[in-house]
Design a protein that fits this description.
Elements (H helix, E strand, L loop, with lengths): L3 E6 L8 H16 L4 E6 L9 H7 L8 H19 L2 E7 L7 H10 L6 E4 L2 E4 L5 E7 L13 H10 L4 E7 L2 H17 L3
Parallel strand pairs: 1-2, 1-3, 3-6, 6-7
Antiparallel strand pairs: 4-5
């Protein structure tokens, strides 16, 4: 059975983007190991909708009670969610902007982390419904050390992925480019080469 990979790039820099170069390397690496791999590219620099009050109303209306307008409002979110749900592998490019994730990536998360579809509440607390996937998160930065006390990108992404059931998450970091870009990039490429 063929495998599916969803690659989400959130850098607003299209040319000379380190996160895009590294997500491309991850995808190439995985494609070499899974010859039947099909890849979906989701480029958030091309624009993404933000949730609003109408979206919230539609999303929290029971599916069998949604009006045609509700369905239309959720149609874009449905596309994004289905891409994630059907993927075996998820690759996320997340440059650190002002110590956190880009606004477009947060908007994508808001579109796909839907109650009763991505997660559900039980007597024992929330349970993720998107189990059985592996995620590769590429974090790049100019001056923020990945995993440090001021990195609010990687811990958040790791948490939100776990929240929806994706607990097999690999960090590929190329941080502190403003100090030593070559070393950070070399370390990231070494991690990619060692992926199984």
């Amino acid at each position: 059975m063929s495998k599916k990979l969803l690659c989400v790039n959130s850098s607003m820099r299209v040319e000379a983007s380190r996160s895009r170069a590294l997500t491309s390397s991850v995808v190439t690496h995985l494609a070499q190991r899974h010859t039947d791999l099909s890849v979906i590219q989701r480029d958030l620099s091309e624009g993404i909708e933000f949730i609003d009050s109408k979206w919230i109303e539609a999303n929290f209306t029971a599916p069998d009670a949604r009006s045609p307008e509700h369905q239309q409002i959720l149609s874009y979110s449905d596309v994004l969610f289905n891409e994630l749900q059907e993927a075996d592998f998820l690759v996320v490019g997340a440059p650190i902007y002002n110590f956190g994730v880009p606004a477009a990536l947060k908007a994508w998360i808001d579109m796909v982390v839907r109650a009763k579809e991505a997660f559900t509440y039980t007597d024992n607390g929330p349970t993720g419904l998107l189990k059985g996937k592996r995620a590769y998160v590429v974090v790049t930065s100019g001056g923020t050390k990945a995993g440090s006390d001021v990195d609010y990108a990687w811990p958040y992404l790791k948490h939100i992925l776990s929240f929806v059931g994706i607990t097999d998450v690999v960090l590929i970091d190329s941080d502190l480019a403003g100090i030593d870009a070559a070393t950070g990039n070399a370390n990231a490429l070494k991690k990619i080469e060692q992926l199984t």
